[in-house]
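Worked example 2:
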Amino acid sequence: MNQRLWYTSPATEWKNALPIGTGRIAGMVLGGIEEERIALNHEWLCVGQNKERQNEDRSAYLPKVRKLLEQEDYEQATILANEAWGGNGGISGRPSKEDPYQPAGDFRFALDQGEAGNYRRDLDLERARVKISYEADGRYITRVSVGHLIEDCIITRIYAREEPVSGTFWLDRAEDERCDISYELGDNTILMHGVFHQGMKFCVTADLKIRGGKIIPIEGNRLRVEDALEILIFINIGTDAKNELPIMECRRRPLPSKSWEQLYRENIAEHAKQYGKLHLDIFEEEPNLPTNERIKKYREGSGDATLPVLYFNYGRYLLCASSANGELPANLQGKWNEDLHPAWDCDYHNDINLQMNYWPAENGHMEDYTEALLRYLEKMIPYGRDAAKKLFGCRGVWLPLSTDIWGCATPETYGWSVWAGVTAWLAQHVWWHYEYGQDMEFLEERGYPFLKEAAVFYEDFLVKDSDGIYQVMPSQSPENRYVGGGELPVTIGVSSAIDNELIMDLLSHCIRAAGILNIDADKIAVWTEILENLPPLQIGSKGQLLEWNKEFEEVEPDHRHVSHLFGVFPGEQIDPDRTPELYAASKVSLERRLSAGGGYTGWSRAWAACLYARFGEGDTALEHIRALIGDFATESLLDLHPPRIFQIDGNLGGTAAILEMLLQSYFEELHFLPALPKCWKNGRVSGIRARGGFTVDMEWQDGRLLKARIVSVKNRNCVIRTNHEKYSIQDSWGNPVKFTMEGSKLIFPMWNDRMYFITVE
């Protein structure tokens, strides 16, 4: 159910094509009839001219900026900060410039055939394959493409039910004055070599295997196949990003000798190891319509309750296809980009976008795919140490708002280059990886060392004022601006809400981690003292949570970012039980922002859906999912930054929102169906993960939990938030399990070798 996107015509443009990928390489299948195009990408392929970037020592600017802030001269503080660190400021050796992520080119073919009929194009999310089928010349022609996770290449099969197939096959790339392209032909191989001037080298290979018939090299970049009963094409891409010959990466594995059936089966099994661990079913009829028609009717107001489930599954598929074998995390477009000059260089934006890409990984039971993000963070540590020292005179690690594949910690962004919150926000994912999985080895060897080094930066960066309060100076609330008393809008201030929330988040996790490991008592004391003396979050005159330390006038009341609401989601500093006033004020802030016209990008709509799920308002959260699909989705459900820029963060943020609607586990307390929409009256979910090492299956009826199954990775108490329903609990052997009630919380002991079955009476 809701596992397939399908269409009755080819895609007319790249953004409506169907994605496949292995994490390392990626393709977009357009499904053309007269000519097929598979657009190709490699995670490491960029221009390559800005690989090495170093910071100059700009630490002397920091006290000057702070002096201006003490004088409340926010305009001059902003101007000086941008002079010091913005744009080219602080970077030596070459101009400030991230390396643009680049397309590798296209694999194309044209089959010998007449007019086609009965066309169908579909993406099967469970089988991770794109299939094109149609009738032509009395033959039923089928083309299947996969990103093969074991062979780590793109494989396409073409056949016509034991009828011969003929056609021409080639590689090419869009004309680019920065890049020279050349070709080689072998007996069954096409090689395309690319060289960016003074930059990166790459190679694309297409190897053809046929059953029956023959292969004929006919031109510089073309092979001709005649009368084959089956054609298999193996596409690989290599770069010199890691100082090896591109062809060596392409030939690292020998071409598989297995049959298509073997290759296909093993790829399905490998894909299922992550994607198949979670299933969501809403017991409503799924319209039997092509996906583009479903979207059209949805925009017109149809009551298609199951289209968000398809969107949810699609997001999970995209995370798999962009992260499975990847050494790098998903960028702004995952791993799929066709533009020679992509928006924002198709980089990593670290003030929500990269983080949002991995919001659904841990609780969505795709935790292995967090590894690409973790490796990237670890790679940035030496760069971040250098940046912290040279830019701000601090120990620890400082990471910038935007980065590229090289992970250099240089301040690239005018206006936001000074922001101090990136390291803390990215560190949240390090903690989550432990919190959901309870892997002590990971926490000790990788998790805590990163958290600790991030915390050390803030130990040095914070300024203790005369009242003993630790202030963030300078501070920002990306990417918003306010009226600071001068002629120009300003970005620099003192102790913005998000900076305080991020530091609370990081230090509380550091304290917990050190306690679990029973180490660093002296550090726990330092971090506790800082936590107890951070500026309190404030409520404004309209009942809203203040974004900055004072009630400044916003330059853009409809701004797409709601950075000050980090503490609601994805953080946990603002909670209905522990901080009810701030919780209510946060909702007011969100409503004010949206009523002014906010939420005008896909990812900001996804964030709004996550926030409303956290507020327990399932119908409102679903309305934002509806807007995410209706206003920002292409025909292939890819998220758009309007009007035409694909950004994968909206897809993955929407997936995260639906997970948040089904299960919340803040403070390791399980809250079943906290924001279930009314139209999802009956349904079930299996394999959803919770903080504390739990995995949960649930079934509900008439909007109420019917039963649940819980397993834990360790022996521990399980805490369930209830609405005072009557529960009964049994273990794997049918034995009743005793529990206690503390207010609305149900508590019972669990053993890690047993399942526990909960029934609502």
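The chain is about 30% helix and 25% strand. The chain has three domains: 4-47+102-277, 54-95+347-598, 681-760.
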